[in-house]
Amino acid sequence: MVKWYPWLNSPYRQILTSYQQKRGHHALLLHSQSGNGEASLCYALSRWLICRQPDGIKSCGNCHSCQLMKINNHPDVYQLQPEQGRKSLGIDSVRSIIDSLYARASQGGAKVIHLSQSELLTEQAANALLKTLEEPPDNTYFILICQTPASLLPTLRSRCLYWPLPAPEEELSFRWLRKAGYQHPPLSTRTALRLCGGAPLAAEALLKPVRWQDRLTFCRRLQEAHETGNFLELLPILNREQDNGPLHWMLSLISDALKYQHGAKEFLLNADRSQLVALIAARWATSILHVQWQQWLYYIYQCQEISGINRELLLTKYLLNWEQAVKDVRISL
Residue 226, class by beta-carbon neighbours within 10 Å (0-12 exposed, 13-18 middle, 19+ buried)? Predict the structure, then answer.
């Protein structure tokens, strides 16, 4: 059973009210960062659209379509996702589903297509989908989810109803996490939320014991690097191909140090590590912090865009540059 979250009540009600009033769009583009419960909202909307006897804005839960949805086995609900081992969604995957949409629905009702990572569409796949969005079969609905709408074809975006799904208010997320059993100190809980852009489910994952300890360990290693001047000690913890968490934590600390230098301490993301932020802010000039920020963003870009890149070699280069920058600062002082 898919979980439901209180901050989804309002967008769910607003979207389905438009369908009840015959103003609902056949293609919905949900713009949400990961961890806002977007998959649950997508499921709930699909279940109402596919239900044969909806009760207001609620699916009945009893008809055969609802029963099939409960076991995630409805033949008229299609999932568009990359083939195993691929990082993009190609035209063949799109065509295989589109061909099925023009046949009669197996259960005699609606057909719903999910696309949880719209950014993965290749240009050819997006163009193939676009043709169907322009002239969709009757009683057919598309629900697309994306984190970066700008990465989609403008023509594809224009055929959809854009619906932003922002993170809930921090207090609501904070109470939900406490109720869910995360009894960390309040400052730690708020830090997790801020590091995750306010997304409650992402913060929940970060607060799990092993992951939270990973962050604390990284912060300790970063502090030791500043104290000893040996930044290469950070190489093993940063060189994890499937885990960019430490890199993002480092960027957040550099950003916090810039805020600290400009007197904006109340806006720190890493509020539970204010001493480390103060150390970084005191050690580096603002100009160096800006250079480091740009450098590490460029490293992320290189890893994403260049296949087969030697991450370890690149990390070594950037860490040595960082180490030398600190030495240069010491000499100038």
Answer: middle
Taking the CA of residue 247 as centre, how many other CA atoms within 13 Å lie in the half-sphere pointing to its CB? 22
Q: Residue ranges of the alpha helices (H) in 108-184?
A: 123-134, 154-158, 170-179
As a whole number of angstroms, the distance between CA 92 and CA 83 comes to 10
Query: Which pLDDT band, with edges at 50, 70 and 90, does 326 fall under?
Result: low
Per the listing, tokens 């007197």 go with 263
Domains of the chain, start order: 6-164 (3.40.50.300), 211-332 (1.20.272.10)
238 contacts 315 by C-beta, under 8 angstroms: yes
Q: What is the pTM of this model?
A: 0.89
Q: Which tokens in the block code for residue 51? A: 């239900």
Taking only the tens place, the pLDDT of each residue in 119-153 is 989 999 999 999 899 988 889 999 999 999 999 99
